[in-house]
Design goal:
The chain contains no helices and five strands. It is mainly β. It has a domain of 65 residues: SH3 type barrels (Roll), CATH 2.30.30.
Length: 93
């Protein structure tokens, strides 16, 4: 079964930092991963998560830290994506 994660950190900074590689010294992507984003786990190595973006904004793939010394940045979740059409279910096209 695929493990999903929710980004819970970075609200005060516009999201969390995403890197190209597992190492903290690897290049930082220009965009941050949005707080509230749902991501799919590709690989988890210690506290470094290689992800694929499912819902939210930010790089489609990359590596993020799942915690800081004082708070979580990403948490495991059972949430699934919600179809965009749910809000418009009564409207006809």
């Amino acid at each position: 079964m695929v493990q999903m994660w929710e980004v819970v950190g970075g609200a005060d900074k516009g999201g969390i930092i995403v890197r190209d590689g597992q190492e903290i010294s690897s290049a930082q992507k220009s965009e941050r991963l949005s707080t509230g984003a749902l991501i799919e786990e590709i690989t988890l190595v210690g506290e470094r998560l290689n992800y694929k973006l499912i819902q939210g904004t930010g790089p489609a793939e990359g590596w993020v830290g799942i915690k800081l010394p004082t708070k979580d940045l990403c948490i495991r979740t059972d949430k699934k994506t919600t179809p965009a059409k749910t809000r418009d279910s009564g409207s006809k096209k």
